[in-house]
Amino acid sequence: MARITHGIACSHIPVLGYAFDHGKEGEDYFRPAFEGFEWTRKFMKEEKPDVIVLVYNDHASAFDMKIIPTFAIGCGESYPPADEGFGARPVPPVEGHADLAWHIAQSLILDEFDMTIINEMKVDHGLTVPLSMMYGHVDTWPVKVIPLAVNVVTYPPPSGNRCWALGEAIARAVSSFGEDLKVQVWGTGGMSHQLQGPRAGLINTEWDNMFLDRLIGDSQDLRQIPHIEYLRETGSEGIEMVMWLIMRGALGRSTRALHRHYHVPVSNTALGHLVLEPVDGSVPPSPTLEQSNAAAQTLVA
Ligand code: DHB
Ligand code: FE
Q1: Across residues 78-105, what is the average pLDDT?
Q2: Which portions of the chain have biased composition (kind: Polar residues) (predicted)?
Q3: How far, in Å, CA of 128 to CA of 15, rounded?
Q4: What integer pLDDT is reported at residue 18 of this predicted model?
Q5: Per-residue pLDDT tens for 235-259?
């Protein structure tokens, strides 16, 4: 059976992609940011996951105001890096895992998450920067990736509670896939940052660290943080952190932290990174799925 082995949270700051692509990782400004990923690169080499369900947001690269899916899953074979205005990043195309992705899509939709299905798209810094952080310079990515895109760009984004519930539904989907695969779930974006307006440059180290603390162990109370708190405390782009709750929801009741890294500043953004291992990975069954199954039973009886 496929199983979720770890969850990883990671900011996706575009300037880190720029520094990485232009050999600037060792420069004074960038070194402390990159050093915090050395532990994880070694861990990934030893751990060798087969597939990552990579939760991220598109920044008007694949979608624009014409179409704004709340939750979308990539079921395609491969995803080239997007040109975000300065040419595409010189990183390999991302290979999908179509069989597992279609299985997850089916399971989520029957579990009453109405996913948008994507077969072709380009992926931007939201997805490729975390891959570079975790794998370093490679000719091909040594893992398959299922992109899971979340709208956090245009109001209204999904609630943190809904994101957590989606994570639980992803865990149910993965555990019902018959192939023996090691699957990680990543949540990207954040931490505190605001890129425009009078509060541009806002960083809230105290709130960010509270969020990191509470993602470890039993994190249920994070589900209740309202949008307005993310906006007020962490700036307009801090709302990206609801995506971390999809990752956390997929890890079940309790977790322990294997690695933690926080650094300010990178660009206008607080960099946060966490590697989590499920301690009690049990995820509650979906009541709606049970109801659907009961209804299906009556149909076939
Ligand atoms: C920056 C950070 C982001 O998360 C993003 O998506 C775009 C820009 C920044 O710090 O510049
Ligand atoms: Fe972003």
Answers
A1: 97
A2: 288-301
A3: 12
A4: 97
A5: 999 999 999 999 999 999 999 999 9
* Most ligand 1 atoms within 8 A of CB, residue of 30, 61, 153, 193 to mutate: 193
Residue spans per domain, the chain: 3-234+258-300
Q: What is the DSSP string of 18-56?
A: HHHHTT-TTSTTTHHHHHTTHHHHHHHHHH--SEEEEEE
CA distance 177 to 174: 5
The first and second tokens of residue 141, run together, are 């990515």
Residues with CB under 6 A from ligand 1: 12-15, 59, 189, 193, 195, 237, 267-269
- For this structure, is 103 an active site residue? no
What digits encode the pLDDT tens for the residues 191-211?
Answer: 999 999 999 999 999 999 999
Please tell me the distance between residue 63's alpha carbon and the centre of ligand 2 in angstroms: 14
CATH superfamily label, 3-234+258-300: LigB-like (3.40.830.10)
The pair of three-digit structure tokens given for residue 124, joined into one six-digit string: 């931007």
Max CA separation in the chain (angstroms): 69
